[in-house]
Write a structure and sequence with these properties.
The chain is α+β, with helices and mostly antiparallel strands and 171 residues long. The chain is 27% helix and 33% strand. It is built from four helices and seven strands; from the N terminus they run αβββαββββαα. The strands form two sheets. It has a four-stranded antiparallel sheet with strand order 1-2-5-4, with no helix packed on it. The C terminus is likely disordered.
Length: 171
């Protein structure tokens, strides 16, 4: 009898707790490259009626970094966190910086606060070097010198005194 009662109480507790689901932080998507200012987005999960003003996002405290065993690099303090919630209730965090990302990876902890809770989540991001356009041909320095030498040979009278003075110095 006691087990049935405990099971009923547990079930009712689960039903009551379902509307109070906690806010969650989703995966991060990086939109910038190495040596560029940071631009990334994190999806907010289970926003469920929370307004942008009720959600506070920031870099975790130094104590949180220390407790979780993560180094807090100085660059991380320049990251801005902006919360956006659209009309459909989907939320996201936009992470930006004015300073370029100079390290090939970032490891940081984000703190989320809302009226009924607090959450810490660690993110590790690998930052790729920029992609170069393959359609633009890359010309080596030796090819440029050869082209420049070819242009000056047939350039006309203004190139001859330079050649003559070079011959005089060589002799």
């Amino acid at each position: 009898m006691a087990r049935k009662f405990a099971a009923v109480v547990f079930s009712l507790g689960c039903v009551q707790a379902s509307p109070l689901m906690a806010l969650g932080l989703g995966e991060i998507s990086l939109e910038s490259y190495l040596n560029e200012p940071l631009r990334a987005e994190v999806d907010l999960l289970n926003v469920q009626g929370l307004h942008e003003d009720q959600i506070r996002i920031r870099l975790a405290t130094s104590e949180d970094f220390k407790r979780m065993g993560v180094d807090r690099a100085y660059f991380l303090t320049s990251i801005s966190f902006d919360v956006e919630v659209d009309d459909n209730g989907r939320g996201r965090i936009v992470l930006t910086s004015e300073d370029p990302v100079l390290e090939p990876y970032l490891d940081f902890i984000v703190e989320a606060r809302w009226p009924s809770g607090r959450l810490l989540r660690e993110y590790t991001v690998l930052v790729d070097p920029p992609v170069f356009d393959q359609a633009v041909p890359v010309v080596s320095a030796s090819e440029r010198i050869a082209e420049a030498a070819g242009e000056t040979e047939g350039a006309g009278p203004e190139a001859r005194p330079v050649q003559a003075s070079a011959a005089f110095l060589a002799g």
